[in-house]
Design a protein that fits this description.
Layout (H helix, E strand, L loop, with lengths): L17 E6 L5 H6 L1 H4 L4 E2 L26 E6 L24 E4 H5 L17 E3 L9 E4 L2 E2 L6 E5 L2 E2 L22 E8 L13 E7 L7 E7 L3 E12 L2 E12 L9 E13 L4 E14 L4 E2 H5 L14 E17 L2 E18 L14 E22 L2 E24 L2 E27 L2 E18 L7 E16 L5 E13 L9 E2 L2 E5 L6 E13 L5 E12 L4 E3 L4 E3 L4 E15 L2 E14 L4 H9 L4 H4 L14 E10 L3 E11 L15 E11 L5 E7 L7 E9 L5 H7 L5 H6 L1 E8 L4 E9 L1
Parallel strand pairs: 8-11
Antiparallel strand pairs: 1-3, 2-3, 4-10, 5-6, 6-7, 8-9, 10-11, 12-13, 12-40, 13-14, 14-15, 15-16, 16-18, 17-39, 18-19, 19-20, 20-21, 21-22, 22-23, 23-24, 24-25, 25-28, 26-27, 28-29, 29-32, 30-31, 32-33, 33-34, 34-35, 35-36, 36-37, 37-40, 38-39
């Protein structure tokens, strides 16, 4: 289920639950029109006197200000009995500014049965989270016609700390969420599109801000056991500490999976958090620690499965896998005053990843294979601050926000060839220092009772120093700056319906090594053209949100998003692939229906048309060079399809239950067939998966639940690709090793599907108690 947007209000309770009194100018119609809930509020006639003080107000509206005769007082209902999902020092929460914007509570996220922590993001309408490797590697994300790889163009934050890693060994924007403990999530704020001035790098398609809880009502001890060696222990508790609260949580997990080569996941995770105050006047300090090691069964070639050379859960290289760790410390502060509010945060993150993959098998090395090792060791520091001022313009309500964001990454990177995780040869090794500064401003004016606009601007400056340890020609300094105007407006509500429009420019950063590399790391004789450090994006969106039907929250958005270049840093090759400009447009339809207090129904549909723009002459040349070898040529013809851009994503779910007694959920998610090559010669199969949960909560806080993953035991794929690779059983392997086939054909290999299957029907039983 999804929470009702704040501006749609809640059912009115008795007078005793009223939590705030707002004194309105005139007859109060402006504020009544700004929030549908206010139309349902009682309007109390007064003949003068003074308004009772209930909260800190600007000087012009403080308690004690006379109330002219005939004016009305509008009273907001108190929040629902559920605990406040806004974390300490998270700052004030404004009204949703676009139809696609929403907030999901941690309670709702944890009502979803998931196979891995990152899948909680599937509460974002139109977002698919999947995995093509082991359980310690960042997930794959799909949203608005983008294969976001491991995070590019989807900005993810946890307590205002960025998760995306720029200039990363495996891929630009790498966003690993395996360290996230779902039970510690308080709320998740979702935005889409480049229309928000406070959203910068990687946020062109969307951003997800995850806030953590500050305390628990009772301690929690939880144990989960499931198929394929899944075991999880969780403990969490909080206590008063001075004027604040201290929260401690710890998690231990293991998993083998259905794979012939077991994953042998060994994960240890911990969190400690001190918080004091409220969302708008408080401070929180959070420390996190996480370590994980695993084996992985990466995507395997379909031709090997069809020939019986591998079982469905087999592995072409059983030594793939990795290990990672992450240690983080962050602090947030927020304060409100007579003229507005401000908030600030600072963080330091130390992380390391060692990843072993073999995606092409024997294409590059026909004897020992193509396994490679990616090493990323970084120290990331950053801080941000925002000041919001409330006032008026020509008598019209106005709010202005100014912000500053900064970040610096000190990174050690290495790419080496390996055999069964043993060193073979260096490909490249680099030391990178990359810093950025972003400044922004936004101004919102309420022109009439039913019309408000927000005008914003953002400026970003990036600078990077790259020291290539093996090839000085690939060292250098790169810097770039971009300014990005933003605009949003809202009309209504009219009959419990609002209309929204947004448009803006944005950008995403590219791997700094691509901006300084002039020679191919694998072949110094091959010259490369450096890529731009920043790439421009631009988009627009129009949408509507309505609660005309009682109990139903519905929104519909139509969007368009252009990107100047889909530049991709190839972590397995150490160089950059500059793709053409692209355009995507489509719509999203989101619905949440709550006919009774004990039942929630949601259904989402997203459809996108995605294409490259212009003609790819380089790809036409590649296609011509493969003539005479159809196994290599297939799928290499020039075209405008964007690989792995899903044209349709759909999901639906039903959740039932009260705070105690029986509860459960049934969820379905669908990923449509997608093109896998630019000429559309290869397409993935559609994936349709059902997950379910059934459980019972006792009055004393204990509960038991059974999760059923892949309920129908569907034989589908988590993800499918199509690219060139080479197996020793391929006819082309013999032709290449004997020198018969042309070099271009041997470098390309056999074009074929490679896939990572969905895990079969799995049961996981959880028993939890409070103390």
């Amino acid at each position: 289920m999804r929470p009702r947007p704040p501006e749609t209000g809640r059912r009115l309770g008795p007078v005793k639950v009223l939590s705030a009194v707002l004194l309105l100018a005139g007859d109060g119609s402006a504020f009544a029109q700004s929030d549908p809930a206010l139309r349902e509020l009682p309007q109390v006639e007064v003949s003068g006197g003074r308004a009772p003080p209930r909260r800190k107000l600007p000087a012009s509206r403080r308690a004690g200000t006379p109330v002219p005769a005939g004016r009305r007082i509008f009273v907001y209902p108190a929040a629902a009995p559920a605990p406040d999902v806004r974390g300490v020092a998270s700052g004030a929460k404004g009204l949703p500014a676009m139809a696609s914007e929403l907030t999901v509570s941690g309670e709702e996220l944890n009502a979803r049965p998931v196979a891995r922590p990152g899948e909680v993001l599937e509460a974002v309408p139109g977002l698919i989270v999947t995995q093509h490797s082991g359980e310690g590697k960042a997930n794959q994300y799909f949203l608005r016609g983008y294969n976001l790889d491991h995070g590019t163009d989807l900005a993810i934050y946890v307590d205002d700390v960025p998760v995306n890693m720029r200039t990363h060994a495996h891929g630009q924007g790498y966003a690993d969420l395996n360290w996230l403990i779902p039970e510690t999530i308080g709320a998740m704020d979702v935005r889409k599109g480049p229309y928000f001035a406070d959203e910068g790098d990687f946020a062109s398609v969307g951003s997800v801000h995850i806030g953590l809880i500050d305390r628990t009502e009772k301690g929690l001890a939880q144990v989960t056991a499931g198929g394929f060696g899944y075991r999880r222990l969780l403990g969490m508790d909080s206590a008063r500490a001075g004027a604040g609260s201290l929260l401690v949580a710890g998690e231990l997990g293991t998993y083998n999976g259905p794979w012939d080569n077991p994953d042998h996941v060994r994960k240890l995770n911990g969190l400690m958090r001190y918080s004091q105050g409220t969302a708008t006047d408080g401070v929180s300090v959070t420390g996190m620690a996480y370590v994980n090691r695993w084996n992985s069964t990466d995507q395997v070639p379909q031709r090997a499965l069809a020939a019986g050379l591998l079982g469905r859960f087999g592995s072409e290289d059983p030594t793939d896998g990795g290990n990672t760790n992450r240690f983080a410390l962050s602090v947030r502060l927020a304060q409100s005053d007579e003229v507005g509010s401000w908030k600030a945060n600072a963080y330091v993150v130390k992380s390391q990843l060692d990843l072993y993959n073999n995606f092409t098998y024997f294409l590059g090395d026909p004897v020992l294979g193509d396994q490679f090792h990616q090493h990323d060791d970084r120290l990331m520091t950053g801080a941000s601050m925002a000041r919001t001022l409330s006032g008026s313009f020509a008598g019209l309500p106005m709010q202005t926000t100014f912000g500053l964001q900064s970040r610096y990454d000190a990174i050690d990177l290495a790419l080496t060839g390996t055999f069964q995780r043993s060193f073979l040869a260096n490909v490249r090794s680099d030391r990178v220092g990359e810093g950025s500064v972003g400044v922004y401003a936004e101004n919102t004016v309420r022109w009439t009772d039913w019309f408000r606009t927000t005008l914003g601007w953002r400026g970003d400056y990036y600078a990077a120093n790259v020291t290539s340890l093996f090839n000085a020609s690939n060292s250098g300094r790169a810097d770039a700056a971009l300014g990005s105007p933003k605009f949003r407006m809202a009309l209504g509500p009219f009959n419990r319906t609002e209309f929204f429009f947004g448009a803006g420019y944005d950008m995403h950063s590219n791997d700094a090594r691509g901006a300084t590399t002039t020679e191919d790391p694998g072949d110094a004789a091959t010259r490369l053209v450096p890529s731009p450090l920043l790439v421009r994006t631009r988009g627009a969106e129009i949408g509507v949100r309505s609660r005309v039907i009682p109990g139903l929250d519905s929104s519909f958005s139509v969007f368009i998003l252009d990107q100047d270049s889909e530049i991709l840093f190839l972590g397995d090759a150490g160089d950059t692939e500059a793709r053409r400009a692209s355009r995507r447009y489509g719509f999203e339809w989101t619905n949440h229906y709550r006919p009774r207090s004990w039942i929630d129904v949601d259904a989402d549909l997203a459809m996108t048309y995605a294409r490259f723009r212009g003609y790819d002459g380089d790809q036409a040349a590649v296609y011509a060079s493969l003539a005479g070898y159809p196994e290599a040529q297939a799928g290499n013809a020039p075209g405008n399809y964007i690989p792995n851009a899903p044209p349709m994503v759909a999901s639906a779910g039903i959740t039932f239950g009260e705070k105690t007694g029986w509860f459960g959920t049934l969820r379905w998610r669908y990923l449509a067939s997608s093109p896998l090559t630019e000429d559309n010669a290869f397409r993935s199969s559609a994936t349709s998966i059902f997950n379910g949960r059934l459980g019972y909560r006792a009055d004393n806080g204990w509960h038991i639940q059974l999760d059923v993953l892949n309920l129908l035991n569907t034989r589908a794929n988590q993800i499918t690709y199509a690219y060139g690779s080479l197996l020793k059983t391929d006819t082309l392997y013999t032709l290449c090793t004997s020198g018969v086939a042309p070099m271009a054909v041997c470098r390309n290999g056999v074009m074929n599907y490679v896939l990572h299957p969905v895990e079969p029907l799995t049961f996981r039983l959880t028993v939890a108690g409070t103390f």
